[in-house]
Amino acid sequence: MDPKSHPSVAIIIVNWNGYALTQSCLISLSKVSYPNFKVILVDNGSVDGSVTKLKSEFPNITFIESNTNLGFTGGNNLGMEWALGKPFDYILLLNNDTIVEPDFLEPLVDFLKGNPTYAAVQPKIMYEKERNKVWNAGGGYFRWLQMSWSIGIGKEDVGQYQTEKDTHWITGCAILIRAKVIKEIGMLDERFFAYYEDVDWSLRMKKQGYNLRYLPQSKIYHVAGASSIKPIKTKEGTIPPIIHYYRTRNHLFLIRNHANPISFVLSLLYQTIKNAAFVLYLAMRGRFNKVKAILKGHYDGLFVKSKL
């Protein structure tokens, strides 16, 4: 099989102090049957020695190192910037806490190859520890409130998500996109840092007239929450306050970037009421760092510049 007869794919993985997860992901990629791909690992300023260990174990992949944590957006953009300077046809963003099936890439590439009106595709994503349960089977979206959700999350898979279909948005956990589309619409918006950047990116693709597709014949597995949930519960819970800040702020960024006048008012009203209720709940439980994070996120989401 001549690799050059197949479209070329750059697979970008961002690592941040996640040696064990990244190692497992790279091992699974070493078994992939698709003949023409290159793995680019971007390290986001790790201090756990993971880069040194991974370089010795996987000498054939390309390493890009940042001195600081650039977030999901900045780390992936660093990898995409490198890949866009090479003649790759497609670029795959893949979370480091995933395990892929050996044949996951063929259906994704084949679909894009045969459907030029589609910008990007995604696989069916299952939980890694409960492989009979769905983590993401496409992205749901209600534009009047600018609400987005992962279709099928937590549901046992009994075949109900086995039909390929168009999707409103694609999770950054695993998205295969045409290189030329990235050149057309731009990379991820680094103002988001993490959370909702994939929804924003997807909506930007759709505004350019492209479609997005969910392909269940491609399957991967996701640990989920590996970088955001702390193993030891504190007074503030297991989710750090900074996560609440980004989620609150970035949802408002999304509203400002993509709502029409009517949905802007409805969405802003809904988010304000929701955030106020959440702040009251957290204050009653004594989680004041999270209260401050949400209040700051709400303020910044309204007043900080929200787009490139």
Percent of residues in helices comes to 25-40%
Uncertain runs are none
> In whole angstroms, how far apart are the ends?
42 Å
Integer-rounded radius of gyration = 19 Å
Question: So what's the CATH class of the largest domain?
Answer: Alpha Beta
Total count of helical runs of at least 4 residues: 9
Q: What average pLDDT do the residues reach?
A: 95
Tally of discrete structural domains: 2
Name the structural class: alpha/beta
Describe this structure in words.
- This protein is of the alpha/beta class and 308 residues long.
- The protein has nine helices and twelve strands.
- The protein has two domains: 220 residues, Spore Coat Polysaccharide Biosynthesis Protein SpsA, Chain A, CATH 3.90.550; 63 residues.
- The strands form two sheets. Strands 1, 2, 3, 4, 5, 6, 7, 10, 11 and 12 form a ten-stranded mixed sheet that branches. The chain has a two-stranded antiparallel sheet with strand order 8-9.
- Helix 1 runs parallel beside helix 2, helix 7 packs parallel to helix 9 and helix 8 packs antiparallel against helix 9.
